[in-house]
Every structure is written in structure tokens, then in C-alpha cells.
Amino acid sequence: MKKQLQPIDAEALLQEHGFKKTPLRIMLLEVLSLSPIPLAVKTLQRKTKKVGADPSTMYRALNAFIEAEIVQAITVDKTKVLYELVQTKNHMHHIVCDSCNTVESIPFCVKNIDQQAINMSRLFKKIYSHQLAFVGTCRKCLRTVR
Q: Which residue(s) pair with 119 in the sheet?
């Protein structure tokens, strides 16, 4: 299922979450909102090049967005992380190809999974969020294996 490409009001979103409206933050949110797929930092750097931010500033902005639950980080393998805008209406999980690292967002969530995890936990009493990734092989990679 493809992600709906709807531009957001990045300045309003930043204000709503108490962030300063910097050119990098605005552009990061706009780029993420218009992307049909989660993006790597290198891609985000290329697409935000005209605002001239260094990598550490970009990582700080992305981490602040993750903490504010505006952006979601998706770990594809142990070394690669992709970023996407959180769609509050449609909670997303992902399917990741174990061969080419293609990622597809799926609007699927197991109901009450947070409560089930708390019921099974001996150490935790509250969960703020969760991530779930299914790992498999995409159609393109399956065809090349045959």
C-alpha cells in the first residue's frame, strides 16, 4: 500500500510541538511528508542541501523529532536506519526485504499489543510506543533467486 503524498504545514507542526522554525527543520518535515518511502540520512542530506546543514545538526533534528513522535526511525539492518513522518491517523509498521533492504509501510497494528506486553513484563508498567517490522524477501529479489 502506498503512502498518501500530502504536504504538511511544517511550520504549524513545529510550533505545535514547541520547536523553533529553522529552515532545516521545515525542509526535513516537508521532504518526509512528500516521500512515499522511508528515507536514509544520505537522501535527506541531498534533498535538504540548499539549507546547508551539517550531518550532526540533521541527526539532532531527527532525534528531537523522534522524541516528539513526529518522525519514526526504522532500523533496516544493524547499520541502516530510515526515517518517515509519523502518520497519527494510520499507525504504520513495515515489511523489510532481507536481500535488498526495500521497506514497505503497512497500515497494520495488532490491537492491544502494548497492554499484552505490559501484562507479560516483570520490569515495565508503561509503554509509550512500539515498532514492529516483518522481514522477508520482496518480489524482485525472489525473481532473481530463481
A: none
Query: Could you tell me the pTM of the whole model?
Result: 0.73
What are the angstrom distances between the C-alpha of 57 and each of 7, 77, 98? Answer: 23, 24, 30
Helix ranges restricted to H, the chain: 10-16, 23-33, 41-47, 55-67, 113-120, 139-145
Structural domains of the chain in order of their starting residue, each with its CATH number: 10-145 (1.10.10.10)
Neighbours of 33 (CB within 10 A): 19
Q: What digits encode the pLDDT tens for the residues 6-32?
A: 778 999 999 999 999 999 999 999 999
Q: Determine contact, residues 80/70, Cβ cutoff 8 Å.
A: no
pLDDT value of position 146: 61
Cα distance between residue 47 and residue 27, in whole Å: 9
Q: Enter the DSSP assignment of 4.
A: P
**pLDDT below 70 — which residues of the chain?**
1-5, 87-91, 111, 145-146
DSSP designation for 2: P
Distance in Å from the first CA to the final CA of the chain: 26
